[in-house]
Each structure stands twice: as structure tokens, then as C-alpha cells.
Amino acid sequence: MGVFATTEDPGSSGHEQVVFCQDKQTGLKAIIGIYSTALGPALGGTRFYPYASESDALADVLDLSRGMAYKNALAGLDLGGGKAVIWGDPERIKSEALLRAYGRFVESLAGRYYTACDVGTYVADMDVIARETSYVTGRSVEHGGAGDSSILTAWGVFQGMRAAAEHVWGAPTLAGRRVGVAGLGKVGKYLVGHLIDDGAEVVATDVNPRALEWARATHPQVTLVDDAAALVAADIDVYAPCALGGALNDDTVPALRAKVVAGAANNQLAHSGIEKLLADRGILYAPDYVVNAGGVIQVADEIEGFNFDRAKLRATRIYDTTREILRLADAEGVPPAVAADRLAERRMADVGRLRTIHLR
Ligand SMILES: NC(=O)c1ccc[n+]([C@@H]2O[C@H](COP(=O)([O-])OP(=O)(O)OC[C@H]3O[C@@H](n4cnc5c(N)ncnc54)[C@H](O)[C@@H]3O)[C@@H](O)[C@H]2O)c1
């Protein structure tokens, strides 16, 4: 994928800025992608991953930063979209000096980009990066940060699921529904708690025996099944992918018995066209980046000085946003994933345009 969008090359990404950063001493090789600052500084995490090649790292950062612009727009944040990747094996090369070198590159963008955690980076890493830059979120509570973002991610997924349930069955509750949760990790665990409190029956699976032990000990009423394939084929009303991406693919969608899909995992649609397959089967898909925005809402709140109640209120609004997207999808005769993209683009254009009103 090229970086510069031109009319001759419509496949190009259209990013505002892409920055390559290198520090030979520490082995740092990072790419920071800023897709859009139409709504404010770009916010998105740093992925630390051993990509096979520089072009794989570039493709990932271009993709992820674009996704963040849409997620932040629909989360109602005054923030644009960006993301960064550090190319390398975190197990081998992550060090204080490397993270601080990276922090200095983030600082050099003077607030056009705020970073946060992603795959391969943790709250403790953000505390280290924060020693070199103020443009970092997702720090520990002791350092004025928002801490574990999975708390509000799970809360937001639950709100999106309520909106989807209302759209399909007429009431914003999961009471009496069978909900299948694939992945009992940081988010899945909190989600199971919300579902049980709401009166849902939970069926779940995880590849990690410790996660299954947790479920048996904490929520003995949860039915555990062997794997995600068994969950997809189970008699469930709602499917909540909360593990890895690509959960909705050419194999799982035809086998799925649920009427609603709403979960935390990023990039649930294995490829474009799956949203249409879901719609054709009469399955309502609440777009992943809409319902899992609670985490970014939580860390974004840190920029103002973290206040959990304010952040929770914002994450609760995922219910309203999901409702609006489902209404728009019906009105415009498109799958919810398309309606969500349209709504995000509208906000970026309409609210972003206000900056053309000259103030001083
Ligand atoms: N944590 C957040 O704030 C946040 C925010 C937005 C999106 N997400 C996304 O939500 C998903 C879950 O995030 P998390 O923080 O809970 O991650 P996590 O690593 O804590 O949990 C993932 C769980 O899925 C399990 N798993 C992996 N492969 C599986 C499989 N094939 N079948 C069943 N279970 C499997 C793992 O054992 C683990 O328990 C990820 O896709 C993540 O990108 C998380």
C-alpha cells in the first residue's frame, strides 16, 4: 500500500503523516502513522511485534492508524487517529533505553500523536515512555494513569450488546438470552460478570486452562465448551468474540447459530464481504470498533486528568452510538459495519471542518 493518496492511485492510504524512527544503539525501529488529526491529536497504541519485514510493519501501522481514526470519531472523542509499531521481538530487545528513545520520537511530534498500550506493550512500558514525553496515556494509576483499560472495554461491549439485543428482540437486556463468550481474558472476564448480573445464561470457552479454572471457581453456572468452533455451533442467541481477530470468517459465519454478534476482539471480520454474509444470514453484527471503544475512552480520559466516573459515563454512551448505527443501517439499507464507517466519516468531516472558522 502506498502512503500518498492520489486520484491515480485510489488504493493508497491517505495518511497525514508517517514517521520512521531509528536509534541504532538501542535497536529501535519504529513507525508512527497519523491518519487524521481532523478531530484533534491522533491517539492510538504502540504495537511491539517481530514483523517479518519492514513492509509488513508499515502495512500494519497504516491499517491500524486508520482504524483508530474511525474508532475515536465514533467514540465521540476530540481525538484523531494514529498508531505506532516498533519492529522487533519485545522479549529480546525491549529495554528502558529503547522505550525512552521511542518516547523522545513521540515527543518530537509535539502533541500531534499520543501513544498508549497495544500488543506487546504494557502499562509499565508507558510509565517508562512518559519519562521522555507527555504525549502518552495508559500509564499506571500511581503515575496518574487510567490503569487497566479492559474494565471499560468490557462495560462498553456490554452496552453495545444491549443496543443490539433491543434492535433484534425489542428490549435492551440480555436477560434470558444465551450468550457465548470466546476468550476469558482481561475483557472476557469482566464481560461475563456484566452478563450474569443482567440475567443472561453464559456459555464460554478459552484455550488457556487457567481461564477455565477461573470460570469454574468464580461463576460455576457458566457452561464451558471445548473450543470456539463448538461455541459457534452451540444453541446461543449472542456470540461475543473476545479473543483474537478474524473470528468471523468463511467457516464460522455459515455455522453460526446466534442472531447477534457483539464482542471485544479487534478486526473480527476476516475479510471484507463478511459483513454482507452476516447480513444475508440475518445475523446482526455490532461493529467491533464501535462496541470495543471503552478502552480508548478510558485512556483518552487520562489526557484531561483521569476520572473513572466521567470515563464510564462516556463508555455507557456506546449504547446510544450502537443504536444510532443500527438505525442508520436499516434506513440506508446497508450492513451496520458500512453504516458505522459512514457515521465516523461524517463526524470527521462535519466537526473537523469547524477548525476552518478562524478564531484569532
Ligand atoms: N483490553 C482492552 O482494553 C481491549 C480494548 C479493545 C479491544 N480489545 C481486544 O479484545 C480482545 C481481548 O482482549 P484482552 O485484553 O481480554 O486480551 P487477553 O489476552 O487478556 O485475553 C484473550 C483471551 O483469549 C484466549 N484465547 C486466545 N485464543 C483463543 C481461541 N482460539 N479460542 C478461545 N480463546 C482464546 C486467551 O487464552 C485469553 O484468555 C483482543 O482482540 C483485543 O485486541 C481489548
How would you describe what is shown here?
The chain is an alpha/beta fold and 360 residues long. 44% of the residues lie in helices and 14% in strands. The protein has helices at residues 54-74, 90-93, 96-108, 123-129, 150-169, 186-197, 209-218, 228-233, 252-255, 274-280, 288-291, 294-301, 308-316, 318-332, 336-353; strands at 17-23, 28-36, 42-43, 46-49, 80-87, 113-114, 178-182, 201-205, 223-224, 238-241, 260-261, 284-285. The strands form 2 sheets. Strands 1, 2, 3, 4, 5 and 6 form a 6-stranded mixed sheet that branches. The chain has a 6-stranded parallel sheet with strand order 9-8-7-10-11-12, with helices on both faces. It is globular and about 55 Å long. The model has no long low-confidence stretch (mean pLDDT 95). It binds nicotinamide-adenine-dinucleotide. Nicotinamide-adenine-dinucleotide is lined by residues 149-150, 153, 182-188, 205-208, 211, 228, 242-244, 264-266, 292, 295. Nicotinamide-adenine-dinucleotide binds at residues 149-150, 153, 182-188, 205-208, 211, 228, 242-244, 264-266, 292, 295.
Outline of the structure:
Helices cover 44% and strands 14% of the residues. It is of the alpha/beta class and 360 residues long. The model has no long low-confidence stretch (mean pLDDT 95).
- The number of E-state strands comes to 12
| Ligands bound to this protein structure | nicotinamide-adenine-dinucleotide
Count of helix runs: 15
Distance between the termini: 39 Å
Keywords: NAD, Oxidoreductase
Domain Glutamate/phenylalanine/leucine/valine/L-tryptophan dehydrogenase C-terminal: 147-356
Protein name: Glu/Leu/Phe/Val dehydrogenase dimerization domain-containing protein
InterPro entries: Aminoacid_DH-like_N_sf, Glu/Leu/Phe/Val/Trp_DH, Glu/Leu/Phe/Val/Trp_DH_C, Glu/Leu/Phe/Val/Trp_DH_dimer, Glu/Leu/Phe/Val_DH_AS, Glu/Phe/Leu/Val/Trp_DH_bac/arc, NAD(P)-bd_dom_sf
